[in-house]
Each structure stands twice: as C-alpha cells, then as structure tokens.
Amino acid sequence: AMGAVKIEQVDAQTLEQYRNRRLRAKAAPATVWKELKVLRQAWKWGQERGCCPARLKLVFRNGSYSVRVIS
Fold it and tell me: Are 15 and 36 in contact (CB under 8 A)?
C-alpha cells in the first residue's frame, strides 16, 4: 500500500513499485490501471489546491503501461 508514503515522496519509482506489487499479488492489470487512474484524479484535485507538487501521467503503449511524474 502507498498509505505510509508522504505525498512529497511520491515519484515515478514509488508508483511503479506499487504497480508491480499489485500485479505480483495477482491483481488484474485492468484493476491496477483503474486504481492508478483514481490516484491520478485525486492527485489532480490536490494539485489544484496546492497539495501535490507535480502531475501524474499514465501512459499505455503496446499492451503495457507506465507511470510518470511530471514537474
């Protein structure tokens, strides 16, 4: 879970680790993708209010996806 990570410490590596951990736990890729989309929406809401330092970008290519943090 990412609950123990402070928002200032979230970066692409943290999100990739979360994604990989969920997939290893046999979560469906579509489920993990949806979880990251929800996180992106919450992150955007926080950024609009000055709580999140950067923007999340979810990239889907050739049947796989990655997460990026853009400052």
Answer: yes
Strands (E), 1-71: 55-61, 64-70
7, 46 in Cβ contact below 8 A?
A: yes
What are the backbone angles phi and psi of residue 3, rounded to the nearest 5°?
Answer: -60, -25
Q: Is 50 helix (H, G, I), strand (E, B) or coil?
A: coil
Of 59, 55, 51, nearest in space to 40 by CA:
55
Count other C-beta atoms under 10 Å from residue 8's C-beta: 10
pLDDT digits (tens, 9 = 90+) for 13-63: 888 888 899 999 999 999 998 998 888 888 888 888 888 776 767 676 666
Distance, in Å, from the CA atom of 19 to the CA atom of 57, rounded to the nearest integer, reads 14
